[in-house]
Design goal:
Layout (H helix, E strand, L loop, with lengths): L1 H23 L21 E4 L5 E6 L5 E8 L13 H11 L7 H11 L2 E6 L4 E8 L3 H13 L5 H16 L5 H13 L11 H5 L3 H11 L5 E7 L3 H11 L24 E6 L4 E9 L8 H11 L6 H9 L6 E6 L7 E9 L3 H14 L7 H13 L8 H13 L6 H10 L3 H11 L6 E6 L14 E3 L10
Parallel strand pairs: 2-6, 7-11, 7-12
Antiparallel strand pairs: 1-2, 3-5, 3-6, 4-5, 8-10, 8-11, 9-10
Helix pairs in contact: 2-5, 2-8, 10-13, 10-16, 13-15
Length: about 475
Amino acid sequence: MKWLIISLSLFSLLITSACGILGTLPKADPRTMTFPELRFQIPKAERVVLECGMPVYLLRDTELPIINMTAMVRAGSVYEPGAKSGLATMTGSVMRSGGAGGLAPEKMDDELEFMASSVESSIGSDMGTVSLTTLAKNFSRTLQIFSDVLLRPDFSDKRIEIARKQLIEGVRRQNDDPKEIAGREIGKSIYAGHPLGNVLTYASINGINRQEMLEFHRRFYRLDNMILAVSGDFDRGALLKELNAIFAPAAARSPLLLPEVPQPERLYKGEIFYGKKDVNQSVIRMGHLGLSKDSPDIYAVRILDYILGGSFTSRLTTEIRSNQGLAYSVSSHFDIGRRFTGSFIAETETKAESTSRAITLMKEIINGISKEPVTDQELSAAREYLINSFMFGFTTPASIVTQRARLEYYDYPDGYLELYRDRIAKVTKTDVLNAARKYLHPEAFKLVVIGDAAKFDKPLSSFGKVRELDLKFTIPTP
């Protein structure tokens, strides 16, 4: 007992002494702390061309006995007729769900489940994808199913009708969520008259037939119109032999001709859209066309993005959320287009009674960043964040190899990744100011507000002429 008391006394003395020493040390200020330069080498992936002419990106990783593969196909909803909105979506879905290569949908589901493999397909606005994930020991059989889904889908009538009903149900419920309404309508208004602005309707979905899906698939899903990305536990020689066998050169076909889709027309004209919903909170979206990856200003715009509304310390968040308490979340973002001009959208949700105030303040803040240069601290913080967070785009072998394939798919210039951080580091305050003046036009915003106008602090008409949205959904009588 005596020794225990002595030990505790000594321990107490040591703690007291340590606290005294620590108390004399100056407190660290995170704003002035310095760290050694972060060095990160961008991972490489090998590019190989198959005998059929298809590019393949490879990255071997033996940590787990798993193989991932993705095919990127130059297809998309931008290539579907306006009256057939949903054709690409249905085609991409039923390629997998509707069976392929003569294998019935139910048998395909059962076989993939038994092997613990996955094969998925989809088509977005400007890219179609088919992907697989499998244990290395089951790769050959999963690859066969993958190639059948990619090149020989059966489009089961039963599964087509299931996909149709799911899309129609989605359209029927599309006006349930005010945020979804606002997102849909801001996209429609920014891309009005362009395929990117088309939306699904009951009539367009109901008018799609199996033959149109077959023709859409046949037109785009060909070996000279796709890129593969493969990562995981494979033997390089055996993999390439298998890929060359399963993607053997096809019989001569007519030259690939993708439909010409124009760029969205740059018409900076302000419009206001209002949708009535009996809710206590207003959903606000505003924006217009932005820029594409081919613009030399993309690096300045990345910095602008972070400072204006792309971070928790952004100008929009600091003023509207922290200082004014008008919203829990507020942000803005340039979606830099890869094939087509992208968009700029600012968004928030606020109580109905502060709707007009929030809109006015957002426009003032956005307009203000075009008036004078950003501060040294803002520029430094944005640079550091973008440079240091760059590495998180390469967290897995699959993300690394897919990233490389996407760069080729979207025709990025050689060295884009390698030069990205240096170009971000060279952005000046003048560059940011010029980008703000060139790409931000608050007076020409498309403004979408969803909520209860009776509760607004000021009528929306104080901002200009208002067009009310029809949020009723009716199924036409046969």
